Amino acid sequence: MSTRAGIVVTGTEVLTGRVTDLNGPWLADRLLELGVELAHITICGDRPADIASALKFHADEGVDLILTSGGLGPTADDMTVAVVAEFCGRELVLDADLEARIAAILKRMMRRFPDADFDAVMAANRKQAMIPLGAEVLNPVGTAPGVVVEGTPTVVVLPGPPRELQPMWSTALDTEGVRRAIAGRTEYRQETVRMYGLPESGLAETLRLAEKKIDGFDRLEITTCLRRGELEIVTRYEPADAETYREVVALLNEQHGTDVYSTDGSTVDDQVAGLLAGRTIATAESCTAGLVAARLTDRPGSSAYVMGGAVVYSNEAKSELLGVDPALIAAHGAVSEPVAEAMAAGALRRFGVDTAVAITGIAGPGGGSAEKPVGTVCFTVARADGATLTRTVLLPGERADIRERSTTVAMHLLRKLLQTP
Amino acid sequence: MSTRAGIVVTGTEVLTGRVTDLNGPWLADRLLELGVELAHITICGDRPADIASALKFHADEGVDLILTSGGLGPTADDMTVAVVAEFCGRELVLDADLEARIAAILKRMMRRFPDADFDAVMAANRKQAMIPLGAEVLNPVGTAPGVVVEGTPTVVVLPGPPRELQPMWSTALDTEGVRRAIAGRTEYRQETVRMYGLPESGLAETLRLAEKKIDGFDRLEITTCLRRGELEIVTRYEPADAETYREVVALLNEQHGTDVYSTDGSTVDDQVAGLLAGRTIATAESCTAGLVAARLTDRPGSSAYVMGGAVVYSNEAKSELLGVDPALIAAHGAVSEPVAEAMAAGALRRFGVDTAVAITGIAGPGGGSAEKPVGTVCFTVARADGATLTRTVLLPGERADIRERSTTVAMHLLRKLLQTP
């Protein structure tokens, strides 16, 4: 027996793409970790009839649990709780205690807006204290409380902002309603292999080989996808199939050894961060204009090794900040291996670091030529001890793709350089 | 009479959040522009039964058109076309002409992978030439063709990668099947007001006032949302309600004049780019570490005014690259208004530009104190003629939120500075 769930994301701003939904995927991942099957995520606007038909769809699919996100705000277009109450056949009632808690939160928040009228704001937020009769309340992280309505299926109502939804999901997991709904779940493992440098069709070929050679292969649930210029192979399996999974990983290593860079779940960002421990790094970026520095400093604690970087969009900035000889730019062009090398050398010197990464390329849409088309990007990674790698690649896609993929290429070159003794 | 559509996004990697779905929202926006109502986007994994039940859900909702994205790749887990064929009651047949076209595309692509086996790849891709009998083929942009199967509802099958899906949607619009399916659409207008500096509940209050004061207000479909630290109000209406919409905008201006910065659809990025025409700018970033430079250079043509930037994560980098006096840092701390001012002055001097933006803050999770908690960020924007604005703000959220919101604050300060005569 297994437990199944569905996710209902609400919000016209999400349906129409003005806000990217992060909740559906995040909740999906949490459900998978728990061993709860997820069949569908549905997204609809702030219309009661559409929210109701989405709830009915999931219930008709026979799920044990429905999670909703969004529609808990103070504005009149937020009405998820009312629709859920009706769907579950519960009356909507004012929870006076909850109303007092929301008022206390609002008083604190309003300090940032000294000109706002507290009573008006409180009136706008009173509707957030209306809950389905008998529902379990999830205390607000922002101002919107969630609710758990036990039934067939059990419905968990969560707020839209991810930073509110995520902690409230943890609270929901501790409620009686959710615990009973997911009691029948199966235990799954999920593992990830990451590859860099192989086309997707090459991997498809290997997986067909695995299907022929490896017993029990069809019990593994394998998903492959291209992500940030890499190939990711995610496998879900029941613990009894662990040996079969190990055989698949062994086959991938055998067929594509140098392309497989991670089998333990680590990303290239994790690996580079590990390799940079005890070192110092600076960036020198032209076409990516800060994206590599931003990616390296994504993670807490990166200030231990990232000293800084130079964004050198103009030729003058390349010379002034990094000491690139203008004659070198004149001779080879700003997008060239000699200039990438000079940029990396300049970053090592300028920031007094032991590792540098330099990128110069043509992100487009303009600036390409027959010889150096849009997507041409030159990279140099260099260590103060003289170890250096320089590469020129031709990246597909548009401006944003080329800039984004360039950061991935840079991370992999850094990984290679730092793994070299 | 109006035309309604549903969107079926497929792909286990999307359902589980390893890849962010961009297609649902993008297609939703295209449908809205066309005046086609959209009720639901559903997302499911690569399981035939789930894809089939999603198709049935949308059909039961009475839509005229279903768009699917994803599941057209060469791997065995890609099976959207087969499921759609069965759903539409059509046989799946090999289109020999299409197979030849795919082969030609693959030959070109394979040049980048000289070691791959062409016949093996071609076999993997043969299934992409299988189409529902009588369907209209949408020529591949990558290697995956789309199809349009006319019926009740008409189904349009599109590939997963956005850069393939987007041009193929244009092609689909020209097919007989899609043209007939959307013949009954209503004309809508959609306009956006953008605000900065007001809490969402303040806006809710004004919209309640509008509801009382403005005749026909309930015919406008208004969505409000927080996005990148701003408030966005999107309104859809039929052309006959244009005057009502104008009254709402007038009321917003009356109530929140200084907070309303855009009523013509322009973003702060658009406005800053316009204001930078004929000028030059450089960035000086600590906690955002390149994100502002990357945001300014998002748009094509930005090399005309962005000269470069300094990412100065360490104190040494602040002094070495931007000439910030170490004594100033020692006296006030790296996160302080005097240091932000010195960074901006250093960027003006160093890059020889007429505009600079400097940011220094505590993105967390570590590094905060009682006096300067995590989220404290100091900004200076400065012009070479001496005009300067300096602000310290306390931003909510986690590391990534604080970094991202800081870029929005920086853009608005730049807008203000550049609008000052």
From TrEMBL, chains A, B:
State which residue ranges cross the membrane. none
Q: Which CDD domains match?
A: cinA (cd00885)
Q: Which domain of life is it from?
A: Bacteria
Q: Which Pfam families does the record cross-reference, listed alphabetically?
A: CinA (PF02464), MoCF_biosynth (PF00994)
What family, per the record? Answer: Belongs to the CinA family.
Q: Which protein, by its recorded name, is this? A: CinA-like protein
Source species of the chain: Mycolicibacterium confluentis
Which classification does the entry list for the species?
A: Bacteria, Bacillati, Actinomycetota, Actinomycetes, Mycobacteriales
Question: Which gene name does the record give?
Answer: cinA
